[in-house]
Design a protein that fits this description.
mainly alpha, two-stranded antiparallel sheet
């Protein structure tokens, strides 16, 4: 009993300490959402940059800790100003999904720049604080624990005073309550937005430095997990609810700490994603919202303006297909054929995105999860049951459609930004289940010796055969999608995209048609993942990452949302161009992020126009 109480007390202390950090991240997100009604996906990257600035200040220049924190606040505050001024203010008046996509692109750019400057390897961040420990009952806490708690409490008090007793705080609260009314009363909403991003970025940067000291390491990919933890804490308390964000951060820290003690450290991130889905399903406005509070407005349509798509003549489409089919006859080198094979596989994923997001209007950011389901299903059927590739491929696609629809089912009742968050969470839950389900997936070691693809007894081994099969798979997927979009089902999906409320008023069953959209999208993405598994003969939980989902979204936007030919064109362009400019390989994701930001700003309808 004494041992249990000691463990419980230690985990409670650990949970409250890390919960304070989550609260700082969540507070920043709550301020931005309250003022701008925006989920800032770049906030995790600001947190990561704060960690690196603190690491440089302490380890490279041996600055005193207070000076290092001040430097972090200055750099991250300036970064917040740049994000708001260059990435978001030009999008005022656009659909709310446009700034959300812009912050995703900015996050890609910041993360890639950090990797270029400091390499992807973790950097050691020695704790500069005294190693003195303060005894509390049967355990003790270190000075970093005290510092985190002190900063968390101080920030909460300062924010309360700022928002309640200063004119700028009043302006922030007025803008959060009614932006248009505040502007009519003379409030400079642009200055308010800028202030919100400065405060949020300073809090995020300080949180990053504290985590760097606490875990004694910093690394570029720490941004994504931090953003997810912030979203989870924010959702617990209610998006835009500042006291709720503080309590949500502490609750998330406690849940994680107790969960790790009961299970293992590999489950740490799973709790945040489960919380996201659970809160979105049962209480999407947060645990502190009024029960009768209305859900957020539906995010009807896409961010794409009305535009006429470019209609490609049939002879041109036929000519391009003929050239693609004959390419291996004239190009025999393995490398260019492998590049085009990857382009076609990514084109399948881009098709799945443009179907569910461009045609049906449901923001989906978890396609990598569907790819993983398809890959593991086909690989396990071939390895464990010795199923032929042709059968395992089709069954993998169908199983992905069924399971993917069930996983996304809780998101059908969600609206606005919540759908995007839910699909991200579902994709990451799939990855974490794969990591921890050792008896089936072999955990982090992955599946090896997956049989090579065959087609009715003919092995697909050479680069030429692989190219032709992938091209055929892409054409079948494009034809399948073309038939769906041109059918009465496609017209219903477009009605959902344009106005859910009006569609429901006309008697359309929203859940049924959303299920058909997500199921069809998951089927196409599952085929791509399944063939990828057999082509490479090895997969693990990191084969299909969240960056793949964002990349597929960028490809779909580049070509034109809802445009089948555009999705294929965007995939080929964004796959081939980085290979043509091989010297820019390290800048690939920087280019993708920049492309997404520029497309949302200057060419949201894409190269071939949206449909």
């Amino acid at each position: 009993m004494e041992s249990f109480l000691r463990t419980f007390f230690e985990q409670t202390i650990n949970g409250l300490v890390i919960g304070n950090v989550y609260a700082l991240i969540a507070l920043g997100l709550a301020i931005i959402f309250g003022v701008g009604n925006l989920i800032n996906f770049a906030h995790g990257s600001v947190y990561m940059i704060g960690a690196y600035v603190g690491w440089i200040a302490v380890t490279k220049y041996t600055l005193p800790l207070p000076v290092a924190f001040l430097l972090v606040a200055l750099v991250c505050g300036l970064l917040g100003v740049l994000i708001e001024r260059l990435g978001l203010r030009p999008l005022q008046g656009s659909n709310r999904i446009a700034p959300l996509l812009s912050t995703i692109g900015i996050s890609f750019m910041l993360d890639q720049l950090t990797q270029i400057l400091f390499t992807p390897d973790p950097q050691s961040f020695p704790n500069p604080l005294p190693q003195t420990r303060i005894p509390i009952g049967t355990t003790s806490i270190g000075m970093i624990d005290v510092l985190i708690a002190a900063i968390g409490i101080s920030v909460a008090v300062l924010l309360f005073v700022f928002l309640r007793y200063t004119k700028l705080g009043w302006a922030l609260r007025a803008t959060a309550q009614d932006r248009d009314a505040a502007q009519q009363m003379g409030v400079d909403v642009n200055a308010v937005n800028r202030t919100a991003f400065i405060v949020a970025s300073v809090l995020g940067g300080i949180a990053g430095m504290l985590v760097g000291i606490y875990f004694q390491t910093v690394y570029p990919t720490m941004s994504f997990q931090a953003g997810i933890k912030g979203f989870s804490a924010n959702l617990l308390g209610g998006l835009g609810n500042i006291p709720g964000a503080m309590v949500g951060g502490l609750l998330l820290g406690l849940i994680e700490s107790y969960g790790v003690a009961l299970f293992s450290g590999s489950y740490r991130n799973l709790f945040a994603f489960v919380i996201i889905i659970g809160v979105l399903v049962f209480r999407p406005n947060g645990i502190f919202s009024r029960k009768r509070q209305l859900p957020p407005e539906p995010l009807t349509g896409t961010f794409i303006p009305n535009s006429k798509p470019i209609r490609l003549p049939k002879w041109l489409i036929g000519g391009v297909i003929a050239i693609a089919v004959l390419l291996p006859v004239f190009v025999t080198a393995r490398y260019p054929l492998a590049v085009m094979t990857n382009a076609y596989l990514l084109a399948l994923v881009a098709l799945s995105v443009t179907l569910v997001t461009g045609t049906a209007g449901q923001m989906a950011l978890g396609q990598a999860g569907f790819m993983a389901i398809g890959a593991y299903t086909s690989a396990l059927l071939a390895l464990r049951l010795n199923w032929p590739f042709e059968l395992s491929l089709v069954v993998a696609g169908l199983f992905t459609a069924a399971l993917g629809t069930l996983l996304v089912l809780p998101a059908f009742r969600l609206r606005a930004h919540y759908v995007a968050i839910a699909t991200i969470g579902i994709g990451e839950i799939v990855s974490l289940v794969i990591l921890n389900w050792d008896s089936v997936t072999n955990g982090a070691l992955g599946l090896v010796n997956i049989p090579a693809p065959t087609f009715f007894g003919i092995q697909i081994l050479s680069a030429r055969d692989t190219y032709w099969f992938t091209l055929g798979l892409l054409l079948v997927g494009a034809l399948f999608q073309w038939r769906l979009v041109r059918s009465s089902l496609g017209r219903v999906w477009r009605a959902l995209r344009d106005d859910e409320v009006a569609a429901q008023a006309y008697g359309i069953n929203l859940n049924r048609y959303k299920a058909l959209a997500f199921g069809s999208s998951a089927f196409i993405a599952g085929l791509s993942g399944a063939f990828t598994a057999h082509m490479y003969s090895y997969i693990n939980n990191e084969t299909f990452t969240g960056s793949t989902s964002i990349l597929a979204l960028t490809m779909a936007i580049l070509g034109g949302m809802g445009n089948i030919a555009g999705a294929i064109l965007g995939s080929v362009v964004l796959t081939v161009l980085p290979e043509v400019f091989r010297g820019l390989e390290d800048y690939r994701y920087l280019i993708y992020g920049l492309a997404l930001v520029l497309l949302v700003r200057f060419r949201p309808q894409g190269l071939l126009g949206s449909e």
